[in-house]
Amino acid sequence: MCLLKVYLEDGNQDRKLIAENVALISKKNNGVKIRNLNFEEETLEDVDIVMIDALNSILLLRKR
Q: 26, 28, 29: which is closest to 6 by C-alpha?
């Protein structure tokens, strides 16, 4: 099973791992809602999706 690792990129293009084993991603207002295998949800505000790399299991977000 390929689950995503979520990285947040800041203005300097530094990446920080913020979540693992993410199974669901949805757009919510000005942000993104993510849910992991344990059904734990988190909403990240003021972020944009930059890239979804299914081959390497990466979701890259960027702060607005």
A: 26
Rounded CA separation 19/10 (Å): 16
CA distances 36 to 5, 13, 64, Å, are: 10, 25, 24
pTM of the complete model:
0.87
CA distance 16 to 61: 10
Q: How would residue 13 be classed by pLDDT, with cut points 50, 70 and 90? A: confident
Q: 């993510």: which residue's tokens?
A: 34
| Closest alpha carbon to 60 in 1, 2, 14, 28 | 14
